[in-house]
UniProtKB/TrEMBL annotation:
Keywords: Protease inhibitor, Serine protease inhibitor. This is Serpin domain-containing protein. It comes from Argulus foliaceus. Belongs to the serpin family. Residues 43-395 form the Serpin domain. GO terms for cellular component: extracellular space. InterPro entries: Serpin_CS (IPR023795), Serpin_dom (IPR023796), Serpin_fam (IPR000215), Serpin_sf (IPR036186), Serpin_sf_1 (IPR042178), Serpin_sf_2 (IPR042185).
Length: 399
């Protein structure tokens, strides 16, 4: 691409602070069509991400899906066709698809409570030299579209907004000024904080060995408890699965633990399908749970994964005439900055200490010891869509 060609960034950000486990959720409501598209995209993107080097993985495919959806709205011609296929959108008018997603987001936002916080935010920064989209009210409202002089590099203003919507978990996305060629920045943010239904007692946390794929061990802090959890066995993935719900709203963390302690968790994850959770048959079972504390902070370059999924034109000979009549406007970079921390208590310890933990030692418990690499999915069971997906290969590493 020529150095003087106008371009724009698409940036997705996510943060999560997760705290404690237990209980069995009720039956989910009917799946929204938007979640079907988002789930298919999530699985496809996750498989591309995990094909990279053997390290911890954290991604919010939903955040990337929504950022690409904003790009789709302004796309035309073959660029529009590619993005529509990438996003798994059905036939119909573009605005109908966008309205459906707005309803979907409103449903997700309804999950918020005193014990659970979920923030979904979009913002389009448009250079003041570009005309505003003709039908901007159809896809952005209020402060979602901001016009400014991008040549003066408003990275501090963008970073301030990011810091606010992620509750300070992600301080910034741009370490320095933007390039002189940037004409638009699309930012999507997802932030979540939840309390476990049954919190871990910090006094039960102790140091232990986590077995790496290399057959080496690292010392990490393991949380533990004996409680009833929903359990399932996946013969396709050759893994045991445990469901750890949050206090309310039908959001859970699903942990996929490979049967082979020294097997490849990424090879297992590469076999997942859009129904990899809904197809499982869960049963409550008394469980001796041992789970590592971990924190992951990552920046993931999504250019190549998205190209591999078929979105090639938006990075080169793109047509974004829905955003601007300016010729040669294309995407220069798509990145996601992510953060997650899993602890016994988290930032709202008072809410956790009010919980009553039942003594489950009276009956026999079956072990579920996460002492080797595993996959996790933070899933909205009500709307049937993954919010976060990840792989922990080494809990002692923050990267």
């Amino acid at each position: 691409k020529c150095s003087n060609m106008p371009s724009f960034w698409m940036y997705t950000i996510l943060g999560a602070c997760l705290i404690g486990t237990g209980g069995i959720q009720g039956s989910p409501i009917k799946m929204l069509p938007a979640s079907i598209s988002a789930t298919q995209f999530s699985v496809d993107l996750f498989k591309k991400i995990i094909s990279r080097p053997d390290e911890n993985v954290l991604i919010s495919p939903l955040s990337v899906w929504e950022a690409c959806l904003l790009a789709y709205y302004g796309a035309a011609g073959s660029t529009e066709v590619e993005l529509k296929t990438l996003l798994n959108l059905k036939e119909g008018k573009k605005i109908e698809a966008f309205n459906l997603v707005q309803k979907f987001n409103a449903a997700l936002k309804s999950l918020k409570s005193s014990e659970f916080a979920l923030t979904l935010a979009n913002r389009v920064y448009l250079d003041k030299t570009l005309p505003e989209p003709v039908k901007k009210q159809e896809f952005v409202s209020g402060d979602e579209l901001v016009k400014m002089d991008l040549k003066k590099s408003p990275h501090k203003d963008i970073n301030k907004w990011v810091n606010e919507v992620t509750n300070g978990k992600i301080k910034s996305i741009f370490p320095g000024p933007l390039s002189a060629n940037e004409r638009m920045v699309i930012v999507n943010a997802v932030y979540m904080k939840g309390l476990w239904m049954n919190p871990f007692d910090p006094s039960d946390t102790s140091e232990g060995d986590f077995h790496l794929k290399s057959k080496k061990q690292v010392k990490v802090q393991f949380m533990s408890q004996n409680e009833e959890f929903a359990r399932a066995t996946s013969t396709d993935l050759k893994a045991e699965v445990l469901k750890m719900p949050y206090i309310a709203n039908g959001v859970s963390m699903y942990v996929f633990l490979p049967n082979d302690k020294h097997g490849s968790v990424k090879e297992m994850a590469a076999k997942i399908s859009p129904s990899f959770i809904s197809a499982l048959k869960f049963k409550p079972k008394k469980t001796d749970l041992v789970f590592p504390k971990f924190k992951i902070e990552q920046t993931t370059d999504l250019n190549e994964p998205l190209k591999e999924l078929g979105a090639k034109k938006m990075f080169s000979s793109a047509d974004f005439s829905g955003f601007s009549s300016s010729q040669g406007l294309s995407v220069s970079k798509v990145e996601q900055k992510s953060y997650i921390e899993v602890t016994e208590e988290g930032t709202e310890a008072a809410a956790v200490t009010d919980m009553v933990v039942t003594d489950s030692m009276s009956s026999k418990s079956t072990p579920f010891h996460c002492d080797h690499p595993f996959m996790f999915v933070i899933h909205d069971d009500t709307h049937k869509v993954p919010l976060f997906m990840g792989i922990v290969t080494d809990p002692s590493s923050k990267a």
